Amino acid sequence: MSRTYDVIKQTESAKESEGNGVEEPIIDRVEAIVDEPRSEPSDDFQGNGHEAPPFELIPGPDIEEKYQKLRGSLFGGPKKNTIKTLLVVASDHGEGATTTATFLASVLAKSNRARVILVDANLRTPSPLSARRLNQGSKGFTELASGKAKLNEVVQPATFISPNLSVISAGRPLPSPSYLFDGDAIETILAALRERYDYVILDGAPVKDYSDSCFLGSKVDGAIIVVEAGKTRKETARGTKRQLERYGAKVLGTVLNKKKNYIPSLIDRFL
């Protein structure tokens, strides 16, 4: 009895330290996902949209099932067809927003033959997808939002994941791109993407230090906050939610990332 009690108390303590703290409901718990660090562009990959990239973009079977559950939570049932543009953000770098956005776009594209586009809207630092580029030297979201490129010039196929998935990489990194997300141009871009695709998944810049995602969040159908178990502090997560809502974003909930299971499987069945 005392051993079981100790395990349960350990679990309660772990849950308190997981750092969710956001008042919105947890949409789903995505375990053991590690976000790749964002880095400078690399010349080691010159893709054409058909060959497999040298970094993980496709979730394995176990992880894919977790993202299928997340897909159902976000887009299934009565919420079907009400959310077309979704912003995925975190409070800080490395908490899992990029991986969550990428894997969610992947499972959406493979489900019901939906037309999906993944947009790297973090113009501060490029994601692995942008840094290693699907087409070397191609233009991206920076050029599109600043009027230096047209939509058909920046959309690239990601058929190595799904024939229904397209991507827009970040383009040239900018030190202060907030102004690009606060104007009519971004509204026009989102309207065009809504017409072409069933789902638009945007990977936004961290909210803690930048206002980019706050401006963008007010223009999409909804936003989810990725929090990392054991790292994201409660006050930080709450601040992220308040900041997004202050700008007019509709926060749909949170995704708890990298959660550890502290309960042995045998005991877990009886709780």
Protein described:
This protein is of the alpha/beta class and 271 residues long. It has one domain (2-39, 53-268): Rossmann fold (3-Layer(aba) Sandwich), CATH 3.40.50.300. Helix content is 34%, strand content 16%. It is built from ten helices and eight strands. It has helices at 2-17, 61-75, 97-109, 128-131, 141-145, 151-154, 184-196, 212-217, 234-246, 265-268, and strands at 26-30, 85-90, 116-121, 156-157, 165-168, 199-204, 222-228, 251-257. Strands 1-8-7-2-6-3-5-4 form an eight-stranded mixed beta sheet, with helices on both faces. It is globular, with a radius of gyration of 19 Å. The model is unreliable at 1-19, 32-37, 39-55 and 261-271 (pLDDT under 50).
**Widest beta sheet: strand line-up:** 1-8-7-2-6-3-5-4
DSSP helix fraction = 25-40%
Write down the Rg.
19 Å
Instruction: Report the uncertain regions.
Output: 1-19, 32-37, 39-55, 261-271
How would a textbook summarize the main sheet?
8 strands, mixed
Give the count of helical stretches: 10
Percent of residues in beta strands: 15-25%
N to C succession of SSEs: HEHEHEHHHEEHEHEHEH
Taking the alpha carbons of the first and last residues, their distance comes to: 14 Å
Overall pLDDT, averaged?
A: 77
